[in-house]
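Weekly structure sync - notes
Attendees: PM, LS, DV (DV joined late)
Agenda: review two folding runs queued last week.

Item 1: First target. Sequence and structure tokens pasted below for the record.
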Amino acid sequence: MAHSNLFGGAIGMQRDNNKYHIDDPTNWPHGLDKWTPSKLFKIALYFGVCFCFALTIPNNLWDPELRQITFIIGVLGIWRYSWWFTHAVRAWIYGRFVYPSIRERGRKLWQAGWRPRHLHFMMTTYLEHRDITEKVVRSILMEIRCSGVPGTIWLGSSVRRDEDIVCGVLRREAQNLDVTLRIIRQNVPGKRAAIGLVLRAMNRNAVEEDDLVVFMDGDFILTRGAISSCMPLFKLFPDLQACTTNEEVICIGPKWISIWLEMRFAQRRLAMQSHSLSKRVLTLTGRMSVFSARHLLRHEFIRLLEADHLDHWLWGNFRFLSGDDKSTWYYMLKARVVMLYVPDALGYTVEVIEGSGLERMVQNFRRWSGNMLRNGMRATKLGPRKMPFFIWWCLVDQRLSMWTMLVSPVLALSASILYTPSYILSYVLFIAVSRMLLSLFLYQYARTISLVYPWILYFNQLINASVKVYCIFRLSKQKWTNRGNQSSSAEGDALLNKARNVMAIWCTSVSVTALFLGTIIYSELLAIPSLGDSKLLLLHLFDF
């Protein structure tokens, strides 16, 4: 994972009297520097404690009455961990062999003097903190200056305050740069509307098909060379139409939220590199992605971003609120173009957590899971002939994992209640060891090594699966507090919506009950009465 310095400043940010300042991140450990003797000792101590715990607690795993449960949990574990290992191996191949070759070819092309004709930065922002907005704009100017490519900043905004901040930075620091600012004031709310208006303005202003367009949020700070790492790839690969980039997080809020986000970004790096080996990715992140303008100027692409929708059997036809990055990805997936992940094109996402950290966490899960379910459903229907088989199976696996993740905790709790409470201790030990083994892979992609990763990873998986099960029957329910507290649902009269909500509750209840009963019956925790037993019971009940 590469880290670059930012315009002579740093990336880590601290809060001080409601202002946000930059700290020097050069003290963050990188690569093998993370594996200090102290960290290795703590990991060894962790496994030692688990071993002592295993020798102390009652061993219920091979109890004759519970052996079937252990077998099921073990089989599911082997399947899931084999899938994780597959991603880890693919990510290693891409990061160790495939991408370094691509990067070297791009470097030679860049040194030979190749440059794109023009860079376009499509930036959307909404009442962001002044300090963050200024750093974002400075990072854009730094990339224009370092690359030597003329640039245009297309600012999609809805309030004068954001526009004034951007104009102020340009007046002070862009006088000697070939950069143009175009402000597109949106007349309807929402990020999708802002992006659509900007793209339509680009269509009217002689943007050429070979120009490069950078989609970025107003809270994403580029590091030096982030765009330059992506630009040569579009010349090397004519079929390449989109690059998604590496992200690190700056969390201004509770420490546990910061660790959780860092872990999620580590998961993202591992998965992105694995997917990119198939020349596709599963999302083109809206934080920052680079596109060739060829498809972006088409009416079909613009209209999909503006008014993407889903025709659902329960909620009818409804528009998507967030998830513009999933819409761009779905369009590119249908177009069968190459999409790559660029590991050393790094930027920093600034997350300012105000209010309840737990509430923000749940909101993020609902937004991310909803976007994944809404788009994954239709992407899977494209079939493996429209995309590499591995990518298609990744989409199928997303649908399966939300259910399989819930099987093992259901089995462990059921066995503890119906047979022996000590079984839950064996399950906790299983979680402690298995999630640490997974974390050993994640540490290679994380900012630092933290012993709480195994537990955050487990609860992240458990909560994420639960939220997906809840959302799958409520796909029209959307809320986005980051963009003016927007919310939406399927249109219709009050009685119809009430009936739909009742149906969603019923579907969720039936699905969860079926999962619970099917799990405990298959594991032989609960036996189904035989036909003969049922007849005897009926005769006994009606014996006069």
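Item 2: Second target, run right after the first with the same settings.
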Amino acid sequence: MREPIRWVQTNLRQTDAGLDANRLVRQLADMRANVLLFGMGGIVAYYPTTTPFHYASPDLPPGRDLFGEVLREAHAHAIRVVGRYDLSKTQKAVFDAHPEWFFRQSNGQPVVYNGLYSTCINGGYYREQAMKILTEGLEKYDVDGLFFNMFGNQSSDYSGRPVGLCHCDACRRKYRQLYQKDIPETPDDDYRKFMSSSTHEVAAAIGELIHRIRPHAGYFNYQQEFTDGIMSESNTAVTRPLPLWPYSASDRVNRARNSQPGKMAINLNMQFVDFWWRFATVPGEEIALRCWESLANGGALTLAVNGTLDQQDRQAIETATPIFRWTAANEQYFVGQSSAARVLLLGAASGEDSYRGLFRLLSEEHVPFAVSDNMDWVGERSYDLVLTTGRAPAGLADYVREGGKALIASASKPEFEIAPVVRTESDVKGYVRVRDHAAFPSLKDVDLLMLNGSFTELKADAPALLTLVPPSMIGPPELVHIDMYDTDIPALVFRQMDKGLVAWIPWNLGGMYYRSSLPAHAGLFRDLLSRLLPQRQIRTNAHPLVEMTLMRQNGRTLLHVINLSGHSQTGYFAPIPMTGIRVQVAGEFRGARAIRAEQKLEVRVDGGYSEFTIPQLGDYELVVLE
């Protein structure tokens, strides 16, 4: 939180135990990395461990302490080292000695993958043996942090094969004590709570151990609780549903930094295509885009590779290296950033279409926004507008009553009263009728908007601006929609709540925009923004595929500008250079500098906005406003 982070992960194989420590650290220093995530122990140790049931890599030369060598060399070059552990699997010898420590499928069989046996979060390996392993490593090395991969019980193996729920004696006994029933065959709410609490118990114990032995050391895994930083990944998979999500790093870092402002976000920029092809690199432009998005949202700059930095496909490293070097040369701008956004998007599950649709709409409209998956901001941070695409919690009503404005775009019933609910239909293939075009200037040529999905019927006291047109006949062509009829059922309602205003779209606007990108849906959103947010923080002529984030840092404002025009379908290409991007930022600033272009920009202040022009945008620009 006090220094900029340039983090490189080398996901070691056991056969990498003979690597040249001096060469690795020289490579890191050359690219100006200042944190190394490096294999330490767990499945295999990269040092001569003496802890029972913990085994050094069979490829570690006798007497060699690879981790110790790398740690000494890295510290000599001012590079911090985070040791990597994976406690989720271990060798057959441990299973033979302590079968009660391990994951058991419903048929009683262990989970075995490439000869390694999966441990259970409630068993003695995690609860006792792991603490012995970690104590040895922490006492032996002045490590700067520990990271844990695959923390807790996994529901599938690396090949994607489902393994079900653990039915070991420890799990069955603990589950029955808590819920007075047996473990189900498929996870339900009780089982999810059970696994969450079990994982949290171990996570808290490990955190206490790390901070007691090495008070300065950081603790990292993929949980938010108990850890010192919030880890996530931007990665790919060949079976992942399309379309690709080019905002992956922005999404994860924005959410982490604004959900837990006291913690740093470290979103690992994964170089490989999928598990089967660990040495095949994603496009360099995708690597670069993730780098810029992480930096633009106040997170760490990262790169993660499998094996060492001597890759057989060097595109990721060759792409990231100049970004690391430039960021190091300008590191004063990449520490201590916090979001200056006046709009908040409440985060549903990050993969949900509805959430991604509103994320895109806000970005394409160049509205700076923060993402939070909790309500801790109420009373702590001030926003002009809050949006949600799923649950509208009761706490949101307090924000509105105090003068805030909210936009709910979801068929889910809010946890506070907006309008009486008649019923919710799960699949409505109809239309929304525009009743008042004066209220929607972007829809002057549109009378009907596509409606597909869930819709909640509401009662309204006043005539609605938008109304439901129910499904009608779709074929043959001679009969298309000849039975279409209008209703007075509102498709948009407003409610004044004390000092504030809430708007409810009781259907899935975000999901439809994410899937179909219809201009009519974007126009509706734009016009609602104009009503709810009459003074935007940024006004610009920039292309919709220019992403802008507005950050605050040490009394100055930073505008990060990212060019996403190189993304097309499943490809990432060099972005199209753009020129003459006019920007107006709310506030009165004395000067502006384009750091990447090394150019002072002329600023004109008028009507509460500071206006300047970015002469040319390649892939990324940083404008410092003072």
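Discussion on item 2: The domain at 341-536 is CATH 3.40.50.880 (Rossmann fold).
Action: LS to circulate a short write-up before next sync.
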